[in-house]
């Protein structure tokens, strides 16, 4: 990550002029209530296929809501109904309390950031021109828009030299970042992301996910995110909606609850194996009973885990160490205790007993 | 079967003969001035070509754009294109003259009919070739239909569209010689007049000029296409292609920041 | 209408002769052009460095008007202008230039993984060309053949202004004598000829690509 960011100012604000131009849909205030509500939304096609079946959920303000499910579950259709690139057959979708059909579709879309799987960058324009598309559409002059564009490129972790290049010269991961930057350009309060990280290889994907989480920490947008990968859903989502083939909502819950209390067999199967283990990722390691170090030194084969981290990291460290014991580290990296794998397991048992 | 030439048996005595006649014609200064001079004829020829291609473009471009953008009536576009190609240009010209009398109009009718198919096909193909993901992203971002067409589809389709116009222009240049057959000007005059008085020098020179104008038009359009095509479309980089590392890619064993 | 039919009846002989000549002049250059363009394209496919010069030459020859070529070739070839050899060569050059692009694009449309699989299975380059590359290239190549054929049909008519034999004569004579019947007959026959040849080529394409029909059926 480049540490010097000449274009981005800490907590960069939009210039007042930019803000006025953006129109009334945009709220800079993170505490503003911008949520998306699905009220019994269905999508039925002429030949009878039901893509979305009576979907009702609320994508809360400032949170990442993930729609996940197998092919044909209607996740992309649901997403695209929000920005009206697909029409709702019955029910309604409210943004900020207003029915999306009460606003002109084009105006609606300009206030929503849209990121798709293949990035959809304009090949005939430079990276910078791609990013500044919507601001320029809204009337922002070129210089101001370019300045904002350069800020965004840095914010998504791209080298500023890429600004004058064309999409064809970029790698898949870089193109995706440009797509995200382009969606952020008009500072929308809502972002719709349709499998944005699926088209890149797993290593690049992990990096993109991590940076995306960091970005969201800075920006706090209301995001609806579609993926077919349950691991990605659990990693990124504040709330996850699992959809089945036929467009029915199976479960809408936090990732922790999803992993520990799947509501039916479909959800359980979709989550897959190891869910018990993965659920540990949502339990803190801070309450583990540690043994005193008693001058036990951290040898070369020793494994460590952060005290402020998850139970999963702790168990993993213990399992992979040479003697089944792992060292707990505090935030400064100093060893503060020792615990064995069996002790961790015993702790988990007591936790389960306490809950049920 | 083929030897039965109709009208005048065209016989040249020898190559030497033709070469002589050619030189005679080219070196005669009278041939370079006045209403029957070479420059005038070239100008007339270009005039017919430009008019025909302009009219054909005015018809075929909007049609091709509309059909390509909406995706409807593609059947119509493709089949009209194919069918129009089957109409014999000469026949159309003669028919039009017999109806309308002599003049520029029948010539333009015939040449425009010739120029429409390549332009229509290329325009439609060009718009269709734009990646659906790009158009989808453009719509989703809030570009209205006009803006999608104007800012995204047309610039990307431009090389193909221009190549259609290029192809049409070359064909029209080649065929505009028929104007001379119905008492108009153009380089066809050198061919036909030369033929009627057995002046093979004139004929050959005329042929050479037609060829040069056609090739010239081809090169002209090639340059225009190169100038108008965004570097992002050809994959030709304008700056150094040194790879800028993606920060998400781990370098060696260390993971990303 | 009756006048028209009696006209047709009276002149059937001449018209038939013109039609035959026209068909011959339209079809032979395409066949010859294909016979030349296919090997050239195949060679260019294997030796990539040939592609640019070959396509550049083809481009230049394509923009060379056939009529002009017809008049200029005798100088090089030493033939008469309306000599059959001269005509066929001029038209063939135009057709090759047009088809070469089609052949190269067609062979290029064979997916790389298919080529790789063919090599891996043990096909020699020549067998691979006939067994794999060409059949897959058929759709693109035939598209070019269709355009070339139809263009030739119209082109041969244009040649009538310098005395070329063919349906074009119906246009020139009809024009000189203000004879509608002749002109309309010429147009109708020309269009019919173009459509018939086109249909033949499309049928040939369907016969050569049975998998395309199967794919269309499976799509239901």
Topology (elements, then pairings):
The complex is a heterotrimer of chains A (356), B (257) and C (220).
Chain A: H1 16-22, E1 36-44, E2 50-59, E3 64-68, H2 75-82, E4 90-95, E5 98-99, H3 105-110, E6 112-115, H4 127-131, H5 133-137, H6 142-155, H7 172-184, E7 190-194, H8 202-219, E8 222-227, H9 230-236, E9 239-244, E10 248-253, H10 255-260, H11 265-271, H12 275-279, E11 303-306, H13 311-320, E12 325-329, E13 335-340, H14 341-355
Parallel strand pairs in A: 3-8, 3-9, 6-7, 7-8, 11-12
Antiparallel strand pairs in A: 1-2, 1-4, 4-5, 9-10, 12-13
Helix pairs in contact in A: 6-7
Chain B: H1 15-27, H2 38-70, H3 74-86, H4 89-100, H5 104-128, H6 132-141, H7 145-175, H8 188-196, H9 200-228, H10 231-234
Chain C: H1 2-46, H2 51-63, H3 66-77, H4 84-108, H5 112-121, H6 125-158, H7 168-176, H8 180-208, H9 210-218
Helix pairs in contact in C: 1-4, 1-6, 1-8, 2-4, 3-4, 4-6, 5-6, 6-8, 7-8
What can you tell me about this protein's structure?
- The complex is a heterotrimer of chains A (356), B (257) and C (220).
- Chain A is α/β, with parallel strands linked by helices and 356 residues long.
- Chain A is 35% helix and 21% strand.
- In chain A, the strands form three sheets. A six-stranded mixed β-sheet of chain A has the order 6-7-8-3-9-10, sandwiched between helices.
- In chain B, helix 4 packs across helix 5.
- In chain B, 47% of the residues are buried.
- The relative contact order of chain C is 0.13.
- The chains are: A alpha/beta (356), B mainly alpha (257), C mainly alpha (220).
- Chains in contact: A-B, B-C.
- Chains B and C meet through helix 1, helix 3, helix 4, helix 7 and helix 8 of B and helix 1, helix 2, helix 3, helix 6 and helix 7 of C.
């Amino acid at each position: 990550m480049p540490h010097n960011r000449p274009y981005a100012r800490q907590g960069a604000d939009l210039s007042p002029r930019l803000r006025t131009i953006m129109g009334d849909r945009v709220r800079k205030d993170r505490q503003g209530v911008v949520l998306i509500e699905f009220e019994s939304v269905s999508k039925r096609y002429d030949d009878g296929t039901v893509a979305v079946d009576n979907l009702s959920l609320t994508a809360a303000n400032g949170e990442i809501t993930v729609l996940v499910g197998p092919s044909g579950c209607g996740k992309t259709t649901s997403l695209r109904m929000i920005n009206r690139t697909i029409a709702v057959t019955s029910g309604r979708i409210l943004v900020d309390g207003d029915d999306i059909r009460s606003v002109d579709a084009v105006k609606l879309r300009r206030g929503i950031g849209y990121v798709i799987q293949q990035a959809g960058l304009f090949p005939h324009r430079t990276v910078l021109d791609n990013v500044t598309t919507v601001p320029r559409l809204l009337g922002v002059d070129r210089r101001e828009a370019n300045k904002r564009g350069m800020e965004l490129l840095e914010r998504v972790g791209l080298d500023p030299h890429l600004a004058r290049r064309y999409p064809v010269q970029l790698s898949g991961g870089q193109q995706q970042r440009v797509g995200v930057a382009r969606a952020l350009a008009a500072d929308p309060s809502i972002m719709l992301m349709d499998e944005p990280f699926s088209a890149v290889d797993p290593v690049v994907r992990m990096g993109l996910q991590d940076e995306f989480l960091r970005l969201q920490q800075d920006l706090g947008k209301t995001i609806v995110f579609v993926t077919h990968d349950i691991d990605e859903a659990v990693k990124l989502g504040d709330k996850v909606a699992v959809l089945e083939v036929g467009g029915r909502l199976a479960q809408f819950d936090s990732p922790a609850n999803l992993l520990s209390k799947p509501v039916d067999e479909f959800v359980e199967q979709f989550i897959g194996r190891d869910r018990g283990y993965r659920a540990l990722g949502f339990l803190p390691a801070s309450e583990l009973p540690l043994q005193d170090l008693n001058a036990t030194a951290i040898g070369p084969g020793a494994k460590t885990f952060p005290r402020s981290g998850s139970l999963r990291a702790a168990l993993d460290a213990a399992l992979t160490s040479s003697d089944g014991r792992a060292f707990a580290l505090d935030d400064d990296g100093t060893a503060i205790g020792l615990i064995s794998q069996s002790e961790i397991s015993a702790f988990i048992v007591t936790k389960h007993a306490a809950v049920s | 079967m083929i030897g039965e030439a109709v009208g005048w048996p065209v016989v040249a005595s020898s190559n030497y003969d033709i070469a002589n006649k050619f030189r005679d014609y080219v070196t005669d200064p009278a041939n370079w001035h006045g209403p029957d001079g070479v420059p005038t004829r070239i100008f007339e020829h270009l005039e017919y070509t430009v008019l025909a291609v302009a009219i054909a473009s005015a018809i075929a471009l909007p049609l091709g754009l509309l059909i390509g953008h909406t995706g409807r009536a593609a059947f119509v576009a493709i089949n009209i294109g194919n069918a129009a190609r089957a109409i014999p240009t000469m026949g159309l010209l003669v028919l039009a003259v017999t109806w309308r009398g002599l003049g520029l109009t029948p010539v333009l009718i015939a040449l425009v009919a010739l120029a429409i198919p390549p332009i229509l096909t290329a325009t439609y193909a060009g718009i269709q070739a734009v990646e659906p993901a790009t158009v989808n992203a453009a719509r989703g971002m809030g570009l209205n239909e006009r803006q999608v067409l104007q800012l995204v589809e047309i610039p990307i389709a431009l090389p193909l569209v221009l190549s259609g116009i290029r192809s049409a222009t070359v064909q029209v240049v080649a065929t505009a010689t028929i104007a001379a057959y119905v008492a108009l000007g153009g380089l066809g005059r050198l061919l036909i007049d030369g033929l009627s008085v057995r002046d093979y020098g004139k004929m050959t020179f005329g042929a050479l000029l037609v060829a040069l104008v056609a090739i010239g038009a081809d090169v002209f359009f090639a340059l225009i296409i190169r100038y108008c095509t965004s570097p992002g479309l050809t994959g030709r980089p304008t700056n150094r292609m040194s790879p800028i590392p993606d920060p998400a890619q781990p370098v060696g064993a260390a993971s990303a920041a | 209408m009756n006048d028209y039919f009696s006209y047709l009846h009276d002149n059937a002989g001449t018209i038939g002769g013109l039609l035959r000549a026209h068909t011959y002049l339209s079809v032979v250059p395409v066949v010859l052009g294909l016979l030349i363009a296919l090997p050239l394209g195949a060679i260019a496919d294997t030796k990539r460095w040939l592609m640019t010069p070959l396509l550049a030459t083809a481009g230049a020859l394509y923009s060379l008007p056939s009529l002009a070529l017809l008049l200029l070739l005798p100088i090089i070839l030493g033939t008469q202008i309306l000599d059959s050899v001269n005509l066929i060569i001029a038209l063939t050059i135009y057709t090759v230039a047009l088809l070469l692009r089609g052949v190269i694009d067609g062979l290029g449309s064979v997916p790389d993984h298919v080529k790789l699989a063919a090599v891996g299975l043990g096909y020699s380059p020549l067998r691979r060309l006939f067994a794999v590359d060409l059949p897959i290239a058929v759709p693109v190549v035939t598209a070019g053949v269709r355009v070339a054929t139809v263009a030739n049909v119209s082109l041969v008519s244009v040649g009538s202004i310098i005395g070329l034999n063919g349906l074009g004569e119906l246009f020139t004579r009809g024009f000189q004598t203000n004879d509608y019947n002749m002109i309309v007959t010429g147009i109708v026959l020309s269009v019919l000829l173009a459509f018939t040849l086109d249909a033949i080529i499309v049928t040939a394409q369907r016969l050569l690509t049975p998998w395309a029909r199967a794919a269309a059926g499976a799509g239901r």
